[in-house]
């Protein structure tokens, strides 16, 4: 069954990246309305479309009357000279599949966690055969999952209540705001666009960047730890020192250095909203996230793995292979699963800065522009969606952790 677990995890990971890739695709779109008045008003419902405002620019308007055609930036009512029949057209680009950004980031996280577990179990089975199978503690996974889910719901209610309190301070109706936030209906931004659509369209780019940078970081750093434990010497010393290198050369430091080197001095890679070959825009942000965190994550895992007492296991008559592939590798799997959700949270925080540096149209870039514009609705929406991602990823990590180590179910 273990090879099937690995195949399922790879399918989840590929599906998550594919969803995020589909969600960033744009297409031209128009919303048309008409009326007979002295003020031309935008067509109803235009603000709830998934406009690609960060990547392609906000929509523009055209008002057609018997006296001519008027085109202008943005979408707002236009005063006419007389009462007359008009046609109001809102044009721009939309991301019609932006809603796929929500499941994509969770599929990427779940695929990464399950994939790592499946790989470790497969290695253990190939090296040790039946000796890789331990005696699991019998306990119900359903009760454990229900307990974790109840904690998730309580945490979400607390987060929503905090955001609703911010709305109450601004003299909004507290109960209606709380109900709206529980249904993720966050109103309109200062641009007149739905906050939901702004967040979903920007989350599409954030989830795609996460899928490209987070999964390789977890896999490569974990196998670097295995190699370092077997070889010791320089490899182990490098991993232990990489923590300090990663802290000193944080993602935003590397990002600024790469920006000036490979975009301004040597214009090799473009930055900003992708306009053409997508991967060329992705290289600098992904590299900025990858190199610091691969060392930090590997260093975090190696100390937990080294807690396995090799002298005790050898004293019990166990061979080096059993010590390595059963005990050390088992500790590696549990240690990684227990910290994988916190690693995702740390990388998402780093992404906020990286997106702002490279003008990558994700949640971090949206948050920066909203803070500059004083758009508190969007800021609260980003806070809510970020907290939800963190809580749900913790819930998924707990489930995988409970499957990998049945002792935590008790």
TrEMBL record:
It is found in: Cell membrane. Residues 229-410 form the ABC transmembrane type-1 domain. The chain crosses the membrane at residues 97-123, 144-166, 208-229, 249-266, 278-298, 383-404. GO terms for biological process: transmembrane transport. Pfam families: BPD_transp_1. It is a multi-pass membrane protein. The keyword Transmembrane helix applies. Its main location: membrane. The keyword Transmembrane helix applies. Keywords: Cell membrane, Membrane, Transmembrane, Transmembrane helix, Transport. InterPro entries: MetI-like. GO terms for cellular component: plasma membrane. This is ABC transporter permease. It comes from Candidatus Aramenus sulfurataquae.
């Amino acid at each position: 069954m273990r090879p099937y677990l690995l195949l399922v995890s790879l399918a989840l990971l590929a599906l998550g990246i594919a969803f995020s890739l589909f969600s960033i695709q744009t297409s031209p779109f128009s919303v048309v309305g008409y009326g007979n008045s002295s003020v031309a008003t935008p067509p109803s419902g235009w603000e709830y479309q998934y406009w690609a405002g960060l990547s392609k620019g906000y929509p523009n308007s055209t008002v057609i009357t018997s006296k001519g055609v008027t085109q202008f930036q943005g979408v707002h009512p236009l005063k006419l000279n007389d009462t007359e029949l008009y046609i109001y057209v809102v044009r721009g680009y939309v991301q019609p599949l932006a809603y796929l950004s929500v499941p994509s980031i969770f599929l990427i996280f779940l695929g990464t966690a399950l994939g790592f577990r499946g790989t470790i179990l497969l290695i253990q089975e190939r090296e040790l055969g039946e000796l890789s199978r331990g005696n699991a503690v019998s306990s119900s996974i359903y009760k454990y999952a229900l307990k974790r889910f109840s904690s998730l719901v309580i945490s979400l209610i607390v987060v929503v209540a905090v955001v609703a309190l911010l709305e109450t301070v601004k003299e909004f109706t507290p109960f209606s705001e709380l109900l709206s936030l529980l249904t993720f209906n966050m109103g309109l931004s200062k641009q007149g666009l739905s906050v939901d659509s702004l967040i979903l369209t920007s989350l599409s780019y954030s989830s795609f960047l996460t899928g490209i940078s987070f999964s390789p970081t977890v896999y490569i750093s974990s196998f670097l730890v295995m190699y370092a434990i077997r070889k010791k010497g320089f490899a182990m010393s490098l991993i232990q020192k990489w923590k300090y290198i990663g802290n000193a050369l944080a993602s935003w430091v590397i990002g600024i250095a790469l920006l000036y080197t490979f975009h301004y001095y040597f214009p090799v890679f473009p930055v900003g909203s992708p306009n053409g070959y997508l991967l060329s825009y992705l290289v600098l942000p992904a590299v900025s996230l990858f190199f610091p965190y691969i060392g930090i994550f590997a260093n975090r895992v190696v100390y937990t793995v080294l807690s396995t007492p090799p002298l005790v296991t050898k004293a019990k008559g166990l061979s080096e292979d059993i010590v390595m592939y059963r005990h050390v590798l088992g500790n590696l799997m549990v240690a990684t699963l227990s910290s994988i959700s916190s690693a995702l949270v740390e990388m998402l925080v780093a992404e906020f800065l990286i997106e702002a540096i490279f003008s990558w149209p994700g949640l971090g870039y949206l948050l920066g522009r909203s803070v500059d514009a004083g758009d508190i609705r969007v800021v609260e929406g980003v806070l809510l969606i970020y907290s939800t991602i963190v809580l749900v990823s913790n819930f998924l990590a707990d489930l995988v952790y409970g499957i990998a180590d049945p002792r935590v179910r008790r």
